[in-house]
Design goal:
By secondary structure, this protein is mainly α. The protein is built from seven helices and two strands. It is about 55% helix and about 10% strand. It is globular.
Protein backbone atom coordinates (compact mmCIF):
# COMPACT_ATOMS: atom_id res chain seq x y z
CA UNK A 1 0.00 0.00 0.00
CA UNK A 2 1.11 3.54 -0.72
CA UNK A 3 2.70 5.31 2.22
CA UNK A 4 3.17 9.06 2.17
CA UNK A 5 6.73 10.25 2.55
CA UNK A 6 6.01 13.96 2.87
CA UNK A 7 3.42 15.27 5.30
CA UNK A 8 1.02 17.60 3.47
CA UNK A 9 1.03 21.30 4.28
CA UNK A 10 -2.44 22.09 5.63
CA UNK A 11 -1.98 25.73 6.60
CA UNK A 12 -4.57 27.37 4.34
CA UNK A 13 -7.85 26.65 2.61
CA UNK A 14 -6.22 26.06 -0.78
CA UNK A 15 -3.92 23.42 0.71
CA UNK A 16 -6.89 21.74 2.36
CA UNK A 17 -9.07 21.72 -0.75
CA UNK A 18 -6.15 20.42 -2.80
CA UNK A 19 -5.65 17.57 -0.36
CA UNK A 20 -9.34 16.67 -0.35
CA UNK A 21 -9.99 16.99 -4.11
CA UNK A 22 -6.60 15.90 -5.45
CA UNK A 23 -7.29 13.06 -7.87
CA UNK A 24 -8.08 13.02 -11.55
CA UNK A 25 -11.68 11.89 -11.19
CA UNK A 26 -12.89 13.23 -7.82
CA UNK A 27 -14.59 16.37 -9.09
CA UNK A 28 -16.36 14.40 -11.82
CA UNK A 29 -17.42 11.73 -9.31
CA UNK A 30 -18.96 14.38 -7.06
CA UNK A 31 -20.73 15.95 -10.05
CA UNK A 32 -22.14 12.67 -11.35
CA UNK A 33 -23.27 11.53 -7.90
CA UNK A 34 -25.06 14.86 -7.56
CA UNK A 35 -26.75 14.20 -10.93
CA UNK A 36 -28.13 10.92 -9.60
CA UNK A 37 -25.59 8.37 -10.85
CA UNK A 38 -25.29 6.53 -7.57
CA UNK A 39 -24.08 3.02 -8.39
CA UNK A 40 -20.41 2.19 -9.07
CA UNK A 41 -21.30 0.69 -12.47
CA UNK A 42 -23.12 3.90 -13.47
CA UNK A 43 -20.11 5.99 -12.44
CA UNK A 44 -17.82 3.67 -14.42
CA UNK A 45 -19.99 4.20 -17.52
CA UNK A 46 -19.89 7.99 -17.02
CA UNK A 47 -16.07 7.95 -16.70
CA UNK A 48 -14.95 5.14 -19.05
CA UNK A 49 -11.30 6.30 -19.11
CA UNK A 50 -10.92 5.56 -15.40
CA UNK A 51 -10.22 2.04 -14.19
CA UNK A 52 -12.60 0.49 -11.67
CA UNK A 53 -9.71 0.28 -9.17
CA UNK A 54 -8.91 4.00 -9.41
CA UNK A 55 -12.58 4.94 -9.12
CA UNK A 56 -12.93 2.75 -6.03
CA UNK A 57 -9.86 4.34 -4.43
CA UNK A 58 -11.10 7.87 -5.14
CA UNK A 59 -14.63 7.04 -3.96
CA UNK A 60 -13.14 5.67 -0.72
CA UNK A 61 -11.09 8.87 -0.24
CA UNK A 62 -14.17 11.05 -0.85
CA UNK A 63 -16.00 8.95 1.73
CA UNK A 64 -13.13 9.32 4.22
CA UNK A 65 -13.29 13.11 3.75
CA UNK A 66 -17.05 12.99 4.45
CA UNK A 67 -17.99 14.34 1.02
CA UNK A 68 -19.97 11.24 0.06
CA UNK A 69 -21.63 8.42 1.96
CA UNK A 70 -21.84 4.79 0.92
CA UNK A 71 -24.88 2.62 1.51
CA UNK A 72 -24.58 -1.15 1.13
CA UNK A 73 -27.88 -2.99 0.66
CA UNK A 74 -28.04 -6.51 2.13
CA UNK A 75 -28.99 -8.32 -1.08
CA UNK A 76 -27.24 -10.89 -3.27
CA UNK A 77 -25.33 -9.72 -5.18
CA UNK A 78 -24.53 -6.75 -2.91
CA UNK A 79 -25.90 -3.41 -4.05
CA UNK A 80 -23.93 -0.24 -3.29
CA UNK A 81 -25.07 3.35 -3.73
CA UNK A 82 -23.28 6.62 -3.06
CA UNK A 83 -24.80 9.96 -2.13
CA UNK A 84 -23.45 13.38 -1.31
CA UNK A 85 -23.22 14.39 2.32
CA UNK A 86 -24.28 17.87 3.40
CA UNK A 87 -20.62 18.91 3.15
CA UNK A 88 -20.34 17.37 -0.33
CA UNK A 89 -23.43 19.28 -1.49
CA UNK A 90 -21.70 22.57 -0.62
CA UNK A 91 -19.07 21.82 -3.30
CA UNK A 92 -21.58 21.56 -6.17
CA UNK A 93 -21.95 25.35 -6.76
CA UNK A 94 -18.15 25.64 -6.76
CA UNK A 95 -17.75 22.77 -9.23
CA UNK A 96 -20.47 24.34 -11.38
CA UNK A 97 -18.64 27.69 -11.37
CA UNK A 98 -15.39 25.96 -12.38
CA UNK A 99 -17.23 24.21 -15.21
CA UNK A 100 -18.72 27.52 -16.39
CA UNK A 101 -15.24 29.09 -16.35
CA UNK A 102 -13.91 26.16 -18.38
CA UNK A 103 -16.77 26.51 -20.89
CA UNK A 104 -16.15 30.28 -21.23
CA UNK A 105 -12.45 29.76 -21.87
CA UNK A 106 -12.74 26.48 -23.75
CA UNK A 107 -11.07 27.51 -27.02
CA UNK A 108 -8.09 29.12 -25.31
CA UNK A 109 -7.63 26.32 -22.77
CA UNK A 110 -7.89 23.64 -25.47
CA UNK A 111 -5.25 25.39 -27.61
CA UNK A 112 -2.85 25.73 -24.66
CA UNK A 113 -3.28 22.09 -23.66
CA UNK A 114 -2.86 20.82 -27.23
CA UNK A 115 0.22 23.00 -27.69
CA UNK A 116 1.76 21.53 -24.53
CA UNK A 117 0.93 17.97 -25.55
CA UNK A 118 2.42 18.54 -28.98
CA UNK A 119 5.68 19.91 -27.52
CA UNK A 120 5.90 16.96 -25.07
CA UNK A 121 5.58 14.42 -27.87
CA UNK A 122 8.51 15.88 -29.81
Amino acid sequence: MYERKIIPNLNCGLDLIGEVLYGKWKIRLLWFINEGHLRPSELQRKIPDATRRVLNIQLKELEEHDLISKKIYPVVPPKVEYSLTELGKTLIPIISALGDWGDKNEAFLRSVILKRLKSESQ
